[in-house]
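Lab manual, section 2.4: Encoding a predicted structure.

Procedure: take the sequence of the chain (115 residues), apply the prediction step described in section 2.3, and record the output as structure tokens. A sample record is shown.
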Amino acid sequence: MNYQEYRQSLNQRLTYKVQRELSSFREEMQAKTPQEIYDAAYQIAMKNEIADCFSNADYSPQAAKAFMKSPNLLQDVYEEWLGREDSHMDELRQTIADFKSYMVKTEKILSGKER
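Recorded output:
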């Protein structure tokens, strides 16, 4: 097995690990009440996005091996994300502010108050 095949094999194993963890998480969620599922909606969405990131990544063998040492990689990355969520909220606030500016300018143009 050459280096590229080895790298690809490790990345496939990593993807499989994350997908198994996601599948287990989904089964856990399906056993919950509708209210509990609703309360966990953000976690569900983020864990799906995290799993997507892993399925589309190409890590070095060293990085893939390091990731695989985590007992629950999906949960660990999710918890790390929660600690960094401020930047996500900043981006969301900026998007809202940009859209507000666009809507105000559009309204002025449509009402004939700006050209």
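Check your result against the sample. The longest helix spans residues 3-30.
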